[in-house]
Specification:
Helix content is 40%, strand content 16%. By secondary structure, the chain is an alpha+beta fold. It has three domains: 71 residues, no CATH class; 143 residues, no CATH class; 127 residues, no CATH class. The strands form three sheets. The chain has a six-stranded antiparallel sheet. A five-stranded antiparallel sheet has the order 3-4-2-1-5. A two-stranded antiparallel sheet has the order 9-10. Helix 6 crosses helix 13 and helix 8 packs across helix 12. The longest helix has 19 residues. The radius of gyration is 33 Å and the shape is elongated.
């Protein structure tokens, strides 16, 4: 980000205003001298805000803008630079990606700790073992490669002292701004003050979120660092896939996820007993609104009306409920998978399309490329 004030520039701070060096030609100098001799609209006045031009150390400076107004409105004056400074501030206190809210997202935790264990292989043998949250996080850590940066971030995440210090420093001073001292100053010093002032404004604006972050981090104070690293990675990525089961965040504000399970390759028979090998696809359900299971990829099947992505699977006697519970997510996925793999009746040719071509020509989707 380009500095707002040149480091080598000599400036003046006077009663909340910043004054810039006045560079002028002989005509302007003559006009300034006339004004100063008359005492009008210059440093001769007793009203600070009326000083258009001031003189210090035989140099003239002209009034610019209010420093507090610059800080308060900088997000509008230069949105890009303001966002850069805001990100810089957030990185300093590990508040960059609003991960605190995601890590306690109820929908995400439901998918991770209740839905996922139903679909993934957790132990050897036929007996199904119920895993604790910690064991699930251990399993995830074994299955995926979590970057080292998240383990480092986990250490910072559990250190709540900086957040407490932020809230302590802000205290009841939210919205106030300590201005630099009056007099000559350098552009470098003013730039440093400005950066600190913007950071203070950002933190003041973020008091509520910082308070919530502190509460969240206190909840996780006794969790193993490696488990926190795993949660941070999942919350940040918004997606995970293990053993053919996965989910992907579609809308963070609405806490909407698409939860899916791979179908794997499977074979269907046509009316004449010929086999058709169907490729793997992802059968999914949305956690945001009631819906039938749908196929995420561009896919064709007798139970899909067209050959495109995001199509709902044709299911009879299936009525989505308003409440998307753990069991409802599981049931919806299993209904969709069962329909694709076993729902087609080659004798009745049920569905939108038939695997084999009918004698009566009806425009339909062709499955000859799946014939084996």
């Amino acid at each position: 980000m380009k500095p707002l004030f040149d480091s080598g520039l000599e400036l003046v701070v006077e009663s909340d205003f910043i004054y810039f060096p006045l560079l002028f030609d002989p005509d302007i100098e003559k006009e300034i001298q006339t004004v100063f001799h008359s005492g009008e609209n210059t440093g001769q006045s007793n009203e600070p805000e009326s000083k258009t031009v001031i003189k210090l150390e035989e140099k003239y400076f002209i009034k610019g803008f209010r420093l507090d107004a610059l800080v308060k409105n900088y997000d509008v004056i230069d949105p890009y630079s303001y966002q850069t400074m805001k990100n810089e501030c957030f990185r300093r206190y590990q508040l960059m990606r609003e991960v605190d809210g995601m890590i306690v997202d109820g929908t995400l935790r439901t998918i991770l700790f209740q839905v996922m264990p139903h679909f993934i292989k957790k132990n050897k043998g036929l007996k199904r073992k119920k895993l604790s949250d910690e064991e699930i996080l251990d399993l995830v850590g074994q299955k995926i490669d979590i970057p080292e940066s998240y383990f480092q971030e986990a250490k910072t995440f559990t250190d709540i002292a900086p957040l407490k210090e932020i809230l302590k420093n802000i205290g009841n001073q939210t919205g106030t701004l300590e201005l630099p001292e009056n007099g000559l100053t350098s552009g470098r010093k003013l730039q440093d003050w400005f950066r600190s002032a913007v950071h203070a404004k950002v933190l003041a604006d973020e008091v509520e979120r910082i308070t919530k972050s502190l509460q969240v981090r206190q909840q996780f104070s006794r969790i193993k660092p490696e488990h926190i690293a795993t949660l941070l990675y999942i919350a940040d990525a918004g997606a995970l896939e293990i053993d053919g089961f996965g989910f992907i965040r579609k809308n963070a504000d609405r806490k909407e996820y698409h939860v899916y399970k791979h179908s794997g390759d499977y074979v269907l028979k046509d009316y004449y007993g010929r086999n058709y090998l169907f490729p793997d696809c992802r059968v999914a359900v949305s956690t945001y609104m009631p819906s039938k299971p749908f196929v995420m990829e561009k896919y064709k099947h007798p139970f899909l009306l067209e050959y495109k992505s995001g199509q709902e699977i044709c299911l009879k006697h299936f009525n989505p409920t308003d409440e998307m519970t753990t069991q409802r997510i599981i049931d919806t996925l299993e209904e969709g998978l069962t329909a694709l793999r076993y729902g087609y009746d080659h004798r009745r040719r049920n569905g939108y399309h038939s695997l084999d071509k009918l004698w009566v020509h009806i425009p339909t989707i062709d499955f000859d490329d799946y014939l084996i």
